[in-house]
Amino acid sequence: MGENDRTLGIIGGAGVGAAAELYIDVCARFRAATATLPQIAIWNLPLSDELERSFLGSGADPAAVAQAEALVAESVDRLAAAGATVIAMPCNALARVGARESERAGLPFVDMIAATVEAVAALGHDEATLLATATTYAAGNYDGHGVEMIEPAPQQRAELAGLIARLGEGPQPTGAELLGLIERVRRPGTAVVIGCTDICGLIDPGAAGAGGPVVDSLACLAERCAQALGAPALLGDRG
User: Fold this and answer.
1) Which helix (H) or strand (E) holds 100?
2) Contacts of 42 (CB under 8 A, 6+ apart)
3) Lower CB density within 10 Å: C or N end of the chain?
4) CA dist list (Å): 131 to 13, 96, 212
5) In terms of DSSP H, where are the helices of 82-228?
6) Domain spans in the chain, listed from the N-terminal domain onward
C-alpha cells in the first residue's frame, strides 16, 4: 500500500480533547517528515458525561462498560466505511476494546500502550510509575509488556482521579498541579508514565523530567500513527 492510500481512523470522544490533540500532533509530525498532510478520519463516540463517569470510575458499572464497548465497535465500523486503513484510539482505558474491534474489522490497530512501554524501555528503565484512571489500573492494560508499572498510593490515586474529573466538571486543573503530583509519586530516578490522555496536554514532558523522564502516552501514539501513515521516525520526539 502506498503512502497516499493510507488513511488513519481516530476513535475520539473517550477523553476531553484527546482526539483533537492527536489529530494536530499527527498532522504536524507527518508534515514535518513528508511536507504533506495525512489522510485522517475521526469518529467521535457520543458518550454522555454520566456514561463516561460510570465506566471510568472505580467499581465500573458492567452495563456502562458494555454500552461503551458497543460504541467503540460502532466507531470502528464507521471509520472502516469512511476508508480508514488503520485505527487508533487515544484512550488508555478502552485501548484493548479498540484493538479487539479493529481486529474484528480486519484493520491494523496502532497500540498506544505498547508504544508507551517501549518508549520507557528505550530510556533504559524497567519500571515506571503509572498515572492512569481506575479503569486502566483494574483492567491491567499495562501488564505483561516487559516494564513493571507501579501504581501510586491510594491517596495519590484519589488526587489524580480528582484532577481527571475536573477536566470535565471544572475548575480546570493546572500543569503545576500535575507536576507536583508527578514528583510526589515518582520513585527516585525512575520514569513516570502519563497513562491518561485527558491530562497529557497539561504539561510538556520534556520540561518535566528533572527528577527522571516523563513519558506521555498521547505523544507516543502520535509518533506511531505518523509512522503507520508512512512517515519515518522523527528526531526530537517529545515524551
Assistant:
1) helix 95-104
2) 9, 10, 12, 19, 23
3) N
4) 20, 18, 15
5) 95-104, 112-122, 134-139, 154-169, 175-185, 217-228
6) 3-111+220-228, 113-217
Answer yes or no: pTM beyond 0.90.
yes
Q: Give, in words, the CATH class of 3-111+220-228.
A: alpha beta
Q: Confirm if 101 and 72 have CB atoms less than 8 A apart.
A: yes
Residue 145: count of CB within 10 angstroms of its CB: 16
One-letter amino acid of 238: R
CATH topology of domain 113-217: Rossmann fold (3.40.50)
At 90, list the grid cell: 487515544
pLDDT tens column, 163-210: 998 988 889 999 999 999 999 999 888 899 999 999 998 988 776 656
**Sign of CA pseudo-dihedral 62, 66, 72, 75:** negative
Instruction: Indicate the SS3 state at residue 104.
Output: helix
Widest distance between CA atoms in the chain: 50
Q: Do domains 3-111+220-228 and 113-217 have the same CATH topology?
A: yes
pLDDT in tens, 66-111: 899 999 999 999 999 999 999 999 999 999 999 999 999 999 999 9
- pLDDT of the residue at 55: 67
pLDDT of residue 239: 45
